[in-house]
Amino acid sequence: MRFPVITATLTLTVSSLATAQLTFNITQAFTPGNWEKYRCLDNAKLSLWLPSCLSECQKKANAEDGCAFDDFACHCVNYNAYSDLIEPCAFPASQGGQGNCTLAELGQARPIIADMCNFFNATVYGDYHGCAQWVTKEKTYQVIAGEEVIVTH
Ligand SMILES: *[C@@H]1O[C@H](CO)[C@@H](O)[C@H](O)[C@H]1NC(C)=O
Ligand SMILES: *[C@@H]1O[C@H](CO)[C@@H](O)[C@H](O)[C@H]1NC(C)=O
Ligand SMILES: *[C@@H]1O[C@H](CO)[C@@H](O)[C@H](O)[C@H]1NC(C)=O
Description:
By secondary structure, the protein is mainly alpha-helical. It contains nine helices and two strands. The protein has a two-stranded parallel sheet. The longest helix is centred in the C-terminal third of the chain and has 21 residues, at 103-123. Bound molecules: 2-acetamido-2-deoxy-beta-D-glucopyranose (NAG) (3 copies).
């Protein structure tokens, strides 16, 4: 991992294990309102919740991590690859990155991303049923297939 400090800021858990674990808190995922909130989530909707300093890097990571651009079930299970793209892009030089986000902005983004990915790790495509965007289920299930599942309550 090239950016250990950075990873700690954006992701919920830092694991030094070679194999990622599919983790989620089921109670948090099923917080009332979440199914409506995350329904058909695409980059345009997510961008409304995140600091604009991330937008260019979000697009880059969405396009380059092997998942469909607007498939956040895939981006979330694929977070090891996704974070390696978004973090060096968005983090400021003081943190070893090339981006424009301040630590305060990254601190705002962190719980939003953590809650979103907790939801999608728990529900995968459940909330994308009937949505318009292209999704890459094969990629997602391929990532999940190699992982241990850790469920908390
Ligand atoms: C899971 O989420 C619930 C609701 O947000 C929280 O109260 C609980 O402490 C979390 N459990 C763990 C193990 O983090
Ligand atoms: C979601 O699961 C992936 C592994 O598939 C893991 O890397 C990521 O940290 C998890 N996200 C959350 C918020 O637990
Ligand atoms: C950082 O800001 C500059 C000036 O606004 C902009 O040209 C550049 O694309 C931004 N970089 C990223 C990664 O957002």
